[in-house]
Design a protein that fits this description.
This protein is of the alpha/beta class. It is built from nine helices and 14 strands. The strands form two sheets. The protein has a seven-stranded mixed β-sheet. The chain has a seven-stranded mixed β-sheet with strand order 7-8-9-10-11-12-13, with helices on one face. It is globular. The model has no long low-confidence stretch (mean pLDDT 97).
């Protein structure tokens, strides 16, 4: 059985773990290694059991510790060429990924990584490049799309095929517009290369979910422009307007910004 746990989801740091009985991979490594080691011990995992790292994009809250982890544990890091270049140039990353451990992936090209069958796909965001991942293992699949400016036709197809989905619900649009951010930052957040709002997240689910969707986790909530209960209620309200009931048609959870989610079994 594949299992999933989030160790942080937000601008303070992002990191997700997928495991099978014999393998494990991390998606993004934007949290501190010291805290991650502690959290791993708490939940009965060991960082030495992680055999692969996938990176979505090169913003610091997704890559802060990837160089240190790759060096310390000699673990290969998978990302697109543009993301690897961005990691190399990012001043926040003091320890870079060793050249021998750099693995270049291509959007739309499926590869097998240990127990996992991984397909990266494009996600619009104002980074060097950004991908989501569609991951198959143990007879089920898991899809993650974070830092989403807008939901493209390609992304919609992956939502339609997903059994278990992590999708961004970053902000409430009114909180952004009425909040203290300077106008240029508000414009960035609300743009097609910015972040996905609670309402647009709900609409993406309404338009593309199928009966095979079992779990949805809302990720990358803004600390200043959102709240876990607001995100949940907004998405639930959008769904309800179209006759879809969270908790009945599928399970809906909100991932925590700065602490582990607990372990989810993906059946």
């Amino acid at each position: 059985m594949m299992k999933f746990i989030s160790f942080g989801s937000g601008s303070s740091g992002n990191c997700y773990l997928l495991t099978t009985p014999n393998d494990a991979l991390l998606i993004d490594l934007g949290v501190g290694l010291r805290g991650l080691k502690k959290d791993f011990r708490t939940y009965g995992f060991s960082l030495s059991g992680v055999h692969h790292v996938l990176i979505t994009h090169d913003h610091a809250d997704h890559i802060k510790s990837v160089g240190s982890f790759s060096n310390d544990y000699q673990i290969p890091v998978y990302a697109t060429h543009e993301v690897h270049v961005g990691i190399t140039r990012n001043y926040c990353i003091s320890q870079k990924i060793p050249a021998a451990l750099v693995r270049v992936i291509e959007k739309g090209k499926t590869i097998e990584i240990g127990d996992f069958k991984v397909t990266p796909f494009g996600v619009p965001h104002d980074s060097s490049d950004n991908v989501g991942y569609f991951i198959e293992a143990e007879g089920t699949n898991f899809c993650i799309m974070t830092d989403v400016g807008k939901v493209t036709d390609e992304m919609k197809e992956y939502i339609r095929n997903a059994h278990h989905l992590v999708i961004e619900a970053n902000h409430d649009e009114e909180m952004v517009m009425n909040g203290p951010y300077p106008q240029f930052l508000k414009t960035r957040i609300l743009s097609d290369t910015g972040h996905l709002s609670n309402r647009n997240c709900g609409l993406a689910l309404v338009e593309n979910m199928t009966e095979q969707l079992r779990n949805v986790w809302l990720c990358h909530l803004s600390e200043e422009n959102n709240h876990p209960e607001l995100a949940r209620k907004t998405v639930e309200s959008v769904l309800r307007d179209f006759g879809i009931i969270a908790g009945v048609d599928f399970q809906l959870e909100v991932l925590k910004r700065n602490s582990p989610s607990g372990i989810f079994e993906l059946e």
